[in-house]
Inverse folding.
């Protein structure tokens, strides 16, 4: 049986890349909204505010949701709710959930939010963009912006020509889907996409950031990963630009983080019992430093509520 390649925790790289290149994400996916924003003023990720409404909603695990405060060119403060749906399948409740989050933001903070969704699934027919109901005396039609990554399959030349970081993100995502049971092809595309970062003449910081995303989503079997590293070392030596292979700690840190997650989850199960899936998902987004802190704190936990309180106080949304 062919090995199916994938990783359960796909929200972490999306969160990282959205935070690192948020203006570019908006310009790439939602240019009309981006044109309204004054990018000379700093944007702010409202992690604490989002945690409050997400905790109350209890709608299951959210993927890479970001609540962001920006300023319009005319001077108004605006909140953006960016939702990345990684593994969605066609479901009637998605639009309702988007409406629920928007409503909760308004109810809790008296702020209307611009709601935007990035759909990463493989169903070309699933395109939710509104939630509505209609009665004789009451009517509602809530519309939200959506972008479907699958649509970029027919725009590959455009992606290759773009120097926006999110062109690389989309290319990596699509090729990950297309090579799900083809590890040899995935290895070739992984090498090609990372080599492209150098060919674009990007700064070392940008190459490292995008490498982290590509490396995380385009997971390879251990044997092919070893081959990939050897080939890539040679490539960097020929370029005399050792940006990534001198930073092999990136792969090391990722492995260390995964080991830490496994250990902490096992200890928590012993302390407070079986964890809900959304709580496990939250733990999988923690950094190495946060995992170490949780590993110490959990010794004092006696109930699931202790864990939830700790996550609310320490977790980055």
């Amino acid at each position: 049986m062919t090995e199916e390649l994938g990783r359960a925790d796909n929200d972490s790289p999306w969160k990282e890349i959205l935070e690192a290149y948020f203006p570019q994400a908006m310009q790439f996916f939602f240019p009309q909204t981006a044109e309204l924003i004054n990018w000379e003023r700093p944007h702010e990720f409202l992690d604490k505010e989002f945690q409050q409404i997400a905790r109350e909603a209890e709608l299951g695990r959210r993927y890479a949701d970001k609540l962001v405060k920006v300023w319009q060119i005319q001077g108004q403060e605006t909140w953006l709710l960016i939702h990345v749906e990684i593994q969605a399948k066609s479901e009637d409740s998605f639009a309702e959930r988007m409406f629920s989050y928007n409503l909760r933001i308004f109810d809790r903070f008296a702020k209307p939010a611009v709601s935007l969704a990035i759909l990463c699934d493989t169903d070309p027919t699933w395109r939710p963009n509104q939630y509505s109901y209609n009665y004789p005396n009451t009517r509602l039609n809530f519309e939200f912006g959506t972008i479907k990554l699958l649509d970029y399959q027919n725009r590959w030349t455009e992606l290759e020509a773009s120097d926006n970081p999110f062109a690389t993100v989309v290319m990596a995502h699509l090729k990950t889907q297309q090579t799900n049971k083809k590890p040899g092809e995935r290895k070739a595309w992984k090498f090609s996409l990372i080599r492209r970062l150098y060919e674009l003449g990007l700064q070392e910081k940008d190459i490292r950031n995008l490498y982290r995303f590509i490396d995380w989503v385009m997971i390879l079997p251990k044997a092919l990963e070893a081959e990939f590293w050897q080939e890539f070392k040679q490539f960097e030596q020929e370029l005399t630009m050792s940006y990534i292979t001198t930073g092999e700690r990136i792969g090391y840190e990722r492995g260390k983080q995964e080991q830490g997650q496994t250990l902490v989850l096992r200890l928590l199960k012993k302390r407070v019992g079986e964890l809900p899936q959304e709580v496990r998902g939250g733990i999988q987004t923690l950094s190495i430093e946060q995992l170490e802190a949780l590993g110490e704190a959990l010794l004092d936990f006696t109930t699931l509520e202790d864990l939830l309180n700790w996550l609310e106080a320490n977790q980055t949304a």
Remarks:
- Residues 125 and 199 are 36 Å apart (CA to CA).
- The first helix runs from residue 11 to 20.
- The radius of gyration is 21 Å.
